[in-house]
């Protein structure tokens, strides 16, 4: 199982601070986000554009502080942190 940790505001949107999701390892980040949207319907508006295309709205940190891109892989024992985009000033 992959562990998902939600950070503000996504903990409020999901109603959870963390959850576990069973995946067939490895799975592309974009497919993992589709699984997440199925499990938490309130996320669909944040994860998918019209027509079902996955957005690149989240910053997903896996294996420490490694930032994964939409085509990268998520593995069964990964801890996935879902954070809002970060901008500098």
How would you describe this structure to a colleague?
It is a single chain. The protein is of the alpha+beta class. It has a single domain (2-83), classed as Roll (Ubiquitin-like (UB roll)), CATH 3.10.20. 22% of the residues lie in helices and 27% in strands. The chain contains 3 helices and 7 strands. It has helices spanning 10-14, 29-39, 44-47; strands at residues 2-6, 18-21, 27-28, 59-62, 66-67, 73-74, 79-83. The strands form 2 sheets. Strands 2-1-7-4-5 form a 5-stranded mixed sheet. Strands 3-6 form a two-stranded antiparallel sheet.
Short description:
Helix content is 22%, strand content 27%.
Low-confidence stretches: none
Q: How many structural domains can be distinguished in the coordinates?
A: 1
Shape: globular
> What share of residues is helical?
10-25%
CATH topology: Ubiquitin-like (UB roll)
What is the highest CATH level, the class?
Alpha Beta
The run of helices and strands is EHEEHHEEEE
Q: What is the strand arrangement across the widest sheet?
A: 2-1-7-4-5
In terms of quaternary structure, the protein is single chain
Q: Tell me the number of strands.
A: 7
Could you tell me the strand content as a percent range?
25-35%
The appropriate CATH architecture is Roll
Q: Largest sheet, if any?
A: 5 strands, mixed
Gap between N and C termini: 37 Å
Question: How many alpha or pi helices?
Answer: 3
Q: Which structural category do the helix and sheet elements fall into?
A: alpha+beta
